[in-house]
Structures are given as structure tokens and as C-alpha cells.
Request: fold
Amino acid sequence: MPGKTAEEMALDQKEISVAEFFEKNRHLLGFDNPAKALITVVKEGVDNALDACEEAGKLPHLKIAIDEKGNNKYNIKFRDNGPGIVKEQMPSIFGKLLYGSKFHSRRQSRGQQGIGISASILYGQLTTGRPALITSRINENNPPKWFKLKIDTMKNEPEILEEKELDDGFEPGTEINIVVEGKYLQRYHSVDEYLKQTAIANPYAHIEYRNPEGEEYDFKRAAHKLPPEPKEIKPHPYGVELGVLVRMLKKTDSNKILSFLQNEFTRVGRTSGEEICRLAEVDPDRKPSSLKHQEQEAILNAMQKVKIQRPPTDCLSPIGSDLIRNGLEKEIDAEFITSTSRDPEVYRGNPFQIEVGIAYGGELMERENEKVKIMRYANKVPLLYQSSSCAITKALEKTDWKRYGLEQPGSTGTPKGPATIFVHLCSTWVPFTSESKESIARYPKIVKEIKLGLQECARDLQRHLSKKQKGKKEKRRKKIFSNYMPLVLENAVELSGQGQELSIDPIMERVIDEELVEKAEVGEEDE
Reply:
């Protein structure tokens, strides 16, 4: 049978839309199975709502309700008190993948790619055939706008089925209704757990939630002040690759290489810009678009050699040590809580910051012989899946927990004990291992910083456990003396009445013997 000709093969070639690609590869976005899919839909809706509220300078108040519709179908409703969305943007935001305002922005935010909420709508459309219902109002002077829409996957465009203005009564903000196929579970990998962890990392948010069982949760805010808003920064020379530099050289409005370096990069001034040009042997007055390939490579290599300040860190919005403590105290009844927020560092020109918290004892004592609970976060978003490949897990397993008072089978691994360990990485660009954004890549610099943060909090835990052990010793010592004191007094009275020299050596010997036994026991425990 003769094969196809080039002309016939050409007829089979056609462009694939982003929506069509993810329609066939939804597992890449976190819709691997019904249970995880339900969490992913909630995650994307919550991320959108929190980002919108914070950007508008409003303390977030979210309402989430999940109602079972039968046959593993669930209606998920999100409601927020954010700034709302203008009518013209609503169809594209919810009905077009890779549409958003944060992809090119170098500052910390939960969403980046513009895939999240539209992918959730696409998943609902694929699994139930139902359109999404969107209502939004920007202020009291504008009526609420309502849309019923689907996504045209062949074109990656919104398909508006119906739209209208509603009467007053809908408060400013946004409401989304999506019907999806899913599976509701009550365990660690559950919507309930996801929202609890979200409330811990965002203690300034008030989250009301009703699960499919009809149980209602009210995660009240523990802080009434938003963290500082992150500011946008330009790329840092140390984090730029050749292809990106070539594109920047072509698109820049600068007429000279020197001004290009100063205007397009952060921390590059006139002196460092001239030094880059000198090392690259390129005239600083050359037009950026006129550089040949070898000259572009020379500029890139020179940028890596010149000493340039670290990028500014006001592009980050960490939770903060105090708020981490507040969040843990709000949701966990522990006997001891410690937290730290380390100084910012940089990987590949991207600023990042590590924050750690440890809660110990209290209600966690019922898990004394189990592995510690690990809460992983990236830009305040909980990561519930793919823990084994995550930088946070790697750093935790490389830490020697025995020296800090927790049991650790073998020389490495997850420790055991009545503790919850909280680790948060915030960055302008989190290096996720996949589009599902569940695991952080193991960059050595990131793993090192996480380990240092864990050790810092672990030392506080060790001091607490030492004081606790010392208190137990003191209590046992007092108990020994209180047990023998009546005998001491009785013998003292008897001896003094007989006119004999007062001597309680035999009795004290017994007390001393008891103390020696106790010290020996404590020594064995410490060893």
C-alpha cells in the first residue's frame, strides 16, 4: 500500500488550541481523578477570590458551598467580596485559557498562567456538559451582570449562551457556579483539609464553607490587616536566559545598549551597565536590535560576571512569623507553637523567601506514634499532592530530627511525633514540577533554605522539650521528698524524745537511693 505524499500529509496538519490540548490532557492541570479534581476546582476558585480581594485592598470574605447532585456530580458555588469584574472582561476571564494579567508580572501571586478558573469550567463542561454561571458586580452604582457560558475548545474562546443584568440585591463581588464530576472524601486529601490549611496560611481571610454532608465550617479571621502588597519588579540579569535576552533586545524601546540594560533590568545602573558592555566588548551606544548572535551571547555572559545587587524583595508578600503563629493557634490546640520568617534569598535571579512553623503537643498528642503532619505551601496555597518529589519533603527528610527531640526511624526520613510542621515558600515565580502546581522543584538553594528554616524552629522545639523534661524531673524529685518527709519527721521526734543524737542518715540514704535511680532512668532516656 503506497504511503502518503507530502501534499496529503500537509492536509492533516492543523493548529491545536490551548483549550483543545488541555481537553485531552486534563491530568496536567490536576484533574487526574474525581477526588483530586474536586479539590482542584475548589483550589482555583479560592485562589482567584483571595487574589482579587487582596489586590483590591479588601479583607477577604469567602463563601464556598458544595452540593451533591447524584451520580458523582457536584455543584460548587464560590462567593467573594472582591472588586468584581467589568462586563467586557467576564467572558474571556472565565471562558478562555491562558488569559490573565499576571503571567508577565514579576511579583508574588497565587495564579500566574491564566489557566486555573477557566480550566475548572472546562473540566465541568467535559464531565457534566453543564455551562458555568457567573455573576459579578463592581460597585453599588452598576447593576450585577450575569453570564451563562461554555468554552469553544476548538477556538479557545468563550461561548456565551445567555447574559443579562440582575436587579439590586447582589452585593459587590463575584459568584461562580460550576457543576463537575468528582468524589468527596473526608481525609487528608479532601476539600475540608484544603480549606483548613488555606485558613491557616491566610489568617486575615474569613472563610465560610458547607461540605456535601451538610456540615458547616466557619474559619474566622485571626488578623484584621492585610500583608503588604507585593510590587512588580523587572527581571534580574542573573535569571535571564539567552532566548529571553534576544526577545528583549528586539522588543525594547531603548535606542542604546547601555540604556537597554538600565531600563529593562533591575539593579543595573550606569556603572554596572558600562562594565557589562566593556566585558562583552560591545559599544554601549550600539542599537540593541543590531547585535549579532555572538554579541548577544557576549552580553549574557558578561551579565553573569559583573557583580550586581540582589533583586529587591518588596515584590514578595510573606505571611510573617506572627501571622503564621496566629494561623496555627487559630486552627490547632497545641501546647507549643514556634515560627520563623527567614530573610529573602535568590535562585536564578528570582527572589524567594522561606517561612516555617511548628506546632507540638496538645490535641496532637493522639498522633504521638504517627508521622508528623506536614503542611506544604507555595505563595500561601496548600500543596496536598506529589509530596515525595517536593523540595519541602526533601529538606525535611534531610534534617536530623533526633537531635531536636523527635523520633526519626533511620538516619533520614519523616520524623514521628505529636507535631505539625508548616513550610511556606513565596516567590515571584515558584518552580513547580508540573502545571498542576503541587510540588516544588528541588533547587539546591531552595532545599538549603528550607532546611535552615526547619532547623531554626526545631531548636525552639528542643528548648521547649528540654524545659518540659526538666519540669518532669523536678516534679518527681518533689514527689520523692514528700513521700519520705513524714518518716523523717516521725523518726526525728522519736530520736529527740529518747535524748539521743538526732540522726536521719538511714532515712536520707533511702531518699538518695531513690534519686540515684531516677537520675539513672533520665540518663537512659537522654541517651
